[in-house]
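Illustration 12: Esterase.
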Amino acid sequence: MAYLQINYYSQILGMDRIMHVILPELSDHNPQWTNTDLQDIPVLYLLHGMSGDQAVWSRRTSIERLVRQTPVAIVMPSTDLAWYTNTQYGMAYFDALLQELPEKVATLLPQLSRRREKNFVAGLSMGGYGAFKMAFSSQQFSYAASLSGALMGNPNFPERSTWQNDAYWRGIFGDLSKFEGSENDLLALAQQQTQQQTNLPKLYAWIGEEDYLFENNQQSIAQIKALGYDVVFETSHGEHEWYYWDKQIERVLEWLPINYQQEKRLS
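Figure caption equivalent — predicted structure in token form:
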């Protein structure tokens, strides 16, 4: 596998951006691969949480090792602290990631598939919100996964104030009293998608039972399921931390339709 840092210019944001990419390549590690295997490669967009950036998945999990024997590309962008949202202060992060980034990827890495059935999105915490939001807002992704996601149909759960102050949240989402039913409300987006299309994305969500977002996930997933989505919802012991996300990202890889090959373990 090759590990790339790609610096590119975002026309939408009007500034330079960085994405990290884990890219399958012909090598002695995978002598069974051919040039044919490395065309139309499935791609997983992997999204970070509030304290992270485009490098954090590689720094804190085993993602590069986990996909070493699987012909799948991992694209890791950054939204800074903007919640995968077109902010009220004029920075269209959501458009930059949903519309512009896939076009950049297609231009720079043409061996990656553009087909919906081979494009997936996943994320943790804020990135879990972003993954579902991107899947509900488009026809680009056939699978979407959330790990400990802030699955907000409403940003007013009690823990919000411990993350940032109200001025920050208003800068992202605007008047929070008008959040419900807005373009940032996951449940509203999910309902709208069911009314407009029948080819819904398959969803996966995991949440630790000791996580402060546990009840939020239980309620949100129940509402999303009621809309007719195919959802795999799993819980287990766990808190809101990397120890668990490192374990659960392998579960996501097993769930995705990518012929995931586990690395052989020496006894």
